[in-house]
Amino acid sequence: MAALTADRLVNMLDQVELRVEMLREHASALEKERKVLTDTLNAVANSQELASLPTDRREEMGLTVERLQLRVKAVEVSVSTPRSSEQEAALDQVEQFLTTLVLSMTTDPDRARAVCRSYLCACSTEASGPADQRFQAAILGMHGRRPEEGEAAPRDHPVRAAAKPATRKLGGAADMQAVAQTWAQAVKPTANGKTSAR
Asked: Where are the residues of the annotated region Disordered (predicted)?
């Protein structure tokens, strides 16, 4: 009887976990939509088209823009991830690795290309070359885990997801810049000071 109760609770928690992840995804989508709407309204407010309208029409449009801006600002959506001090330290390490990579693209592109490949391998279970063990350890540390032999970044990790479109051959600095920017996007701070990486 106890085993059945435990199984039922486990199943319930599994379902809740799926719904929590869906909630986070929807909230993140709402954050992006809010930014798009804000940027669009700001663009309209400062557009030459609006400025060229007759005074009465321009004032009417301006009031509409202000009303919509206030309504958008009234919508507050925030997705953050609680982390231990060890996980925060690991996140800082990842950001330092990526910052160093970006800076080295102009000073030593050949080495930067090799480092970028090793970072990609650290984020893939199908590595085609040596993986950077320190970078891999930092990625896994963001999950509060220690790397095991042959282990890559967790499947659902945003930095690993960022590596997927970059698995093609790196042709030059532009490719590496795109990879680094995508990675940086995966771990960048959000408006509330938290970070988007899980």
From this structure: 147-171
Q: Are residues 59 and 92 in the same domain?
A: no
Residues 6+ apart with CB under 8 A from 70: none
Is 120 in the same domain as 66?
A: no
By the 8 A CB rule, do 176 and 120 touch?
A: no
Domain that holds residue 6: 2-73
DSSP string, the chain: -HHHHHHHHHHHHHHHHHHHHHHHHHHHHHHHHHHHHHHHHHHHHT-HHHHTS-HHHHHHHHHHHHHHHHHHHT----------HHHHHHHHHHHHHHHHHHHHHHH-HHHHHHHHHHHHHHT-SS-SS---HHHHHHHHHTTT-PPPTT--S-TT-HHHHHHGGG-S---SHHHHHHHHHHHHHHH-B-TTS-BS--
Same domain, 182 and 94: yes
- Number of domains present in the structure of the chain: 2
Look at residue 152 and tell me if it is in a domain.
yes
**Tens digits of residue pLDDT in 89-136:** 888 898 899 889 888 888 888 888 888 888 888 877 776 788 888 988
Distance from the Cα of residue 155 to its chain's centroid: 15
**197, part of any domain:** no
pTM to 2 decimals?
Answer: 0.48
Amino acid code (one letter) for 9 = L
